[in-house]
Amino acid sequence: MDKVMRMSSEKGVVIFTKSSCCLSYAVQVLFQDLGVSPKINEIDKDPECREIEKALLRLGCSKPIPAVFIGGKLVGSTNEVMSMHLSSSLVPLVKPYLC
């Protein structure tokens, strides 16, 4: 879990993804469209992939991938991020991290 916490604080917006996950790609594109350049951690390329997934679930992510952190805090997975975007509560969170 320490590794996940360290990785989630590397940049203002951090997304844990898998390279083959279409939902991960959709979340990445959303943030890029909002003008944010998130740090992308493709965990399927990490030898500790399974441990990272377990840590994300323990932190409270409904699904391990994609997992979005803003300001070092877990926001959630695709459903949470899209709900926040539709309710206009995502942009104020990412405003400090716009490119």
UniProtKB/TrEMBL annotation:
<keyword id="KW-0963">Cytoplasm</keyword>
<comment type="similarity">
    <text>Belongs to the glutaredoxin family. CC-type subfamily.</text>
</comment>
<dbReference type="GO" id="GO:0005737">
    <property type="term" value="C:cytoplasm"/>
</dbReference>
<feature type="domain" description="Glutaredoxin">
    <location>
        <begin position="13"/>
        <end position="75"/>
    </location>
</feature>
<dbReference type="Pfam" id="PF00462">
    <property type="entry name" value="Glutaredoxin"/>
</dbReference>
<protein>
    <submittedName>
        <fullName>Monothiol glutaredoxin-S11-like</fullName>
    </submittedName>
</protein>
<dbReference type="InterPro" id="IPR002109">
    <property type="entry name" value="Glutaredoxin"/>
</dbReference>
<dbReference type="InterPro" id="IPR036249">
    <property type="entry name" value="Thioredoxin-like_sf"/>
</dbReference>
<dbReference type="InterPro" id="IPR011905">
    <property type="entry name" value="GlrX-like_pln_2"/>
</dbReference>
<keyword id="KW-0676">Redox-active center</keyword>
